[in-house]
């Protein structure tokens, strides 16, 4: 069967449909992606390691199921990438750091096992910020995959799921699985022109997932479109093979009588001019499509930031508790800003950590009620465009300032127990994509996906 040059540009569901119809052989599809990875990623800045033997075995099994009519899901036979914090049996899973280069788990993470049962093909493990503890995607120890959209300057890819995003934006996977503790799915998705779903904390299992924060880590997909995000969400949620829950229904999604709230607090301030133009233009297109959009203050945003600023970064305390031994015994193997950020968690008392969590839970309850009254929140995913990699490598203070600016909007969903969805809405002055984000209370993933599927064509019609 001939290989199509278009396979790397097709959605995961379209590839799955081709396997279903017999026009795509999953074995040839897997080889297509493996060959592209070898050609484009020789320095392994995107994929830290391939799982080629596993991928070929899974593709062969998918081919046999397709031949006999026993496909396990609409994505059976589709090759995807996995961030280097998801355990895969017998393969190094190292959290993006040389300090864990000898860590080989015996079992797959639960979500990877679910994906395997649904027939997906595991291509390999993608690069990330060390310990997933930065939003920028910079990894001087193992290499930083540059953002592919600026052809003249190597810019940040976004993190911590840097390799996940670039594996997809460069056509080296059909979809990618990342994780989100403060925006680590949504920021790289936004800067790479992708859809990124931040799921509700505790909804998807973290068994076999290397941690950063025991109270904020979440699993999430990066995809070409909202339909793929919905399909991957169903896979990760264990819906295929269980036979008891349908996948999210996007059929007939509409914006009629849809209400959104546009926060006037924090998230629309201090935007890069190109980011502001793209996101405000997207909001106006939604208004023109019939959406009711109310501008309203959201004081809970300021309250959450003030609380964490006053009592301290409790997620750093959780990360320090998780990785204390590694950080202290192999400190020279960890990039200095990451090492010091993790060590900062040692200064926070257990009382202050508990007070922060309790305070955020109370604020979150009021925010969820506000969303119920005014509608799903809509805002820029990231306030700024990605700076050049060289600027941050040369100056730690520039690195720290950029990290705070990039985190500002996305981390609010993590602090305040929300789910969120980002999708492309335009480009900046360098041709790098800009993202628009929806935020809703926990458990509202299916509503966000339906809204996203209705918004997508409105923005696409304007060339977003």
Secondary structure blueprint with pairings:
Elements: H1 12-21, H2 26-40, E1 47-50, H3 52-68, E2 79-83, H4 110-117, E3 121-126, H5 162-169, E4 176-180, H6 186-191, E5 195-198, E6 218-223, H7 226-236, E7 259-263, H8 273-288, E8 292-296, H9 299-311, H10 314-329, H11 336-343, H12 350-374, E9 376-380, H13 389-394, H14 396-415, E10 419-427, E11 433-440, H15 445-461
Parallel strand pairs: 2-3, 2-4, 7-8, 7-9
Antiparallel strand pairs: 1-3, 4-6, 5-6, 5-10, 9-11, 10-11
How would you describe this protein?
The chain has 464 residues and is of the alpha/beta class. The protein has a domain at 7-236: Amidase signature (AS) domain (Amidase signature (AS) enzymes, Alpha-Beta Complex), CATH 3.90.1300.10. Helices cover 42% and strands 13% of the residues. The protein has 15 helices and 11 strands. The chain has helices at 12-21, 26-40, 52-68, 110-117, 162-169, 186-191, 226-236, 273-288, 299-311, 314-329, 336-343, 350-374, 389-394, 396-415, 445-461; strands spanning 47-50, 79-83, 121-126, 176-180, 195-198, 218-223, 259-263, 292-296, 376-380, 419-427, 433-440. Strands 1-3-2-4-6-5-10-11-9-7-8 form an 11-stranded mixed β-sheet, sandwiched between helices. Strand 7 (259-263), helix 8 and strand 8 (292-296) form a beta-alpha-beta unit. Helix 7 packs antiparallel against helix 15 (445-461), helix 9 packs antiparallel against helix 12 and helix 10 (314-329) crosses helix 11. The longest helix has 25 residues, at 350-374. The model has no long low-confidence stretch (mean pLDDT 96).
């Amino acid at each position: 069967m001939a290989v199509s040059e278009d396979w790397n540009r097709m959605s995961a569901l379209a590839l799955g449909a081709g396997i279903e119809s017999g026009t795509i052989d999953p074995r040839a599809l897997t080889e297509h992606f493996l060959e592209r990875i070898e050609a484009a990623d020789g320095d392994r800045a995107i994929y830290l390691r391939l799982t080629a033997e596993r991928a070929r075995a899974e593709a062969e099994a998918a081919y046999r199921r397709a031949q006999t009519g026993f496909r396990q899901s609409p994505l059976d036979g589709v090759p995807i990438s996995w961030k280097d914090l998801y355990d895969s049996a017998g393969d190094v899973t190292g959290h993006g750091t040389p300090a864990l280069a000898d860590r080989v788990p015996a079992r797959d993470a639960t979500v990877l096992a679910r994906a395997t049962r649904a027939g997906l093909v595991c291509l390999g493990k993608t690069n990330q910020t060390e310990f997933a503890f930065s939003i920028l995607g910079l990894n001087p120890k193992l290499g930083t995959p540059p953002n592919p959209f600026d052809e003249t300057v190597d810019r940040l890819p976004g993190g911590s799921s840097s390799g996940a995003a670039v594996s997809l934006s460069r056509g080296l996977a059909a979809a990618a699985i990342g994780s989100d503790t403060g925006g680590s799915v949504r920021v790289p998705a936004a800067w790479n022109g992708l859809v990124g779903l931040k799921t509700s904390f505790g909804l998807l299992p973290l068994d076999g997932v290397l941690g950063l924060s025991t109270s904020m880590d979440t699993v999430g997909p990066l995809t070409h479109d909202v339909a793929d995000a919905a399909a991957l969400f169903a896979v990760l949620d264990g819906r295929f093979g269980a036979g008891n829950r349908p996948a999210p229904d996007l059929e007939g999604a509409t914006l009629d009588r849809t209400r959104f709230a546009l926060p006037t607090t924090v998230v629309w301030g201090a935007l890069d001019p190109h980011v502001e133009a793209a996101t405000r233009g997207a909001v106006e297109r939604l208004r023109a499509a019939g959406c009711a959009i109310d501008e309203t203050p959201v004081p809970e945003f300021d309250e959450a930031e003030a609380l964490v600023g006053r009592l301290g970064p409790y997620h750093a305390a959780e990360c320090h508790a998780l990785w204390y031994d590694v950080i202290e015994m192999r400190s020279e193997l960890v990039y200095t800003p990451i090492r010091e950020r993790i060590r900062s968690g040692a200064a926070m008392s257990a009382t202050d950590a508990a007070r922060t969590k309790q305070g955020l839970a109370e604020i979150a309850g009021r925010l969820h009620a506000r969303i119920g009254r005014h509608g799903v929140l809509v805002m820029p995913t990231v306030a700024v465009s990605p700076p050049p990699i060289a600027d941050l490598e040369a100056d730690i203070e520039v690195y720290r300032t950029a990290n705070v600016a990039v985190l500002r909007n996305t981390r609010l969903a993590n602090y305040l127990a929300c789910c969120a969805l980002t999708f492309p809405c335009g480009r900046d002055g360098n041709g790098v994509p800009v993202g628009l984000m929806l935020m809703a209370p926990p458990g509202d993933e299916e509503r966000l996906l339906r809204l996203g599927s209705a918004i997508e064509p409105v923005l696409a019609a304007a060339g977003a």
